[in-house]
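Quick one from the shared queue. A colleague (R.T.) flagged Aminomethyltransferase as missing a structural entry in our internal table.

Convert sequence to structure tokens.
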Amino acid sequence: MQDIQLDDNGLRKTPLYDYYVEQGVKLVDFGGWALPIQFTSIKEEHDAVRNSVGLFDASHMGEIRVTGDDAIGFLDTILSNDLTKVSDGQAIYNAVTNEEGYTLDDLIIYKNSDQDIMVTPNSGNYEKIYKWLEKHNDGSVEISDETAEWGLIAIQGPDAEEVLAKVTDADLPSIKGYHFSANETVAGVEDVVVSRTGYTGEDGFELYIPWNETRSIWEKLLEVGADKNITECALGSRDTLRLEGGMALYGNDLSEEINPLEGGIGFAVKTGDKKEVDYPGKAALEAYKQAPASERRVSKGFELDGKGIARQGYEVYSTDGETQVGVVTSGTKSPTFDKAIGYVMVNKEYADNNDEVLIQVRKNKVPAKFVKKDWLRR
């Protein structure tokens, strides 16, 4: 297995690193990887994905392969979702929790078969998750870190399928959401995994590509997508897109101090009789569900009614301005809706009885209202 190369600042290089340098793209530290914040402007890239098609380098994500006679059964004792109902060719979202129920990571697994599953941790967490899986391995499975073997390109937006179809014979319409097709050929490159997943709130695909072939596919997609104004996109627009789509971000909305129930991904957490086997944190999460509302927190969407943008870490107060009831975990100015939106972590008892708060934005406490995280579906 090849090693991931480092730049002069000690940051990991994605397979597009040399391309970025040649194009004069500014790179920053993102989870230990050298990645761009933007190519042109965040708004331009954001609008391209909402209206046509955008291209993202997501090669910083981890890839861990778990194989063995009952690899799916092993993972079912580690992950929060119920894996017994997952079919071959299906991807499913999960949380990884410690014994106290706090979130080590949120991730997607790709099931090739009961004996072969790909686990895809977040960029800054893949080494931690690899060690966590090894810690719980009783010898029944083999766990391989394949992060250095795969590049990952996301092609997202309403025109994504039309553009991708120009470079592959894969039956794209037959790939349903959160399903994938392995061993496809894309732009002449074999052994590509084509997955109908993404992190933008739009339709699209993620392509798991043999590492050294990633750049050739990137450049080919730019070429064939020119008539759709395909746009190179980076971390800045990725964040505004996922936030409008109601998606959590590890390190903001989830962490080792935030459990997945209060972090807003309870749909991926099965406790009690909803999942037969135990996993680390299952009992703690079930107990958390039963705790009084005054002892729990909940993630709520918000829209700011006044001026400013509420950023991560800003304090949230009751409407009298006297009592802090929570904190902002994610916030931005929505390019699509032209308003300040985000997520707050607030006391559940307060949220159950109120639909407004004040958020400390610099020197002012600015009114905000709770809303569902469904901006794109309204």
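The longest strand covers residues 103-113.
Residues 64 and 145 are 5 Å apart (CA to CA).
Added to the table.
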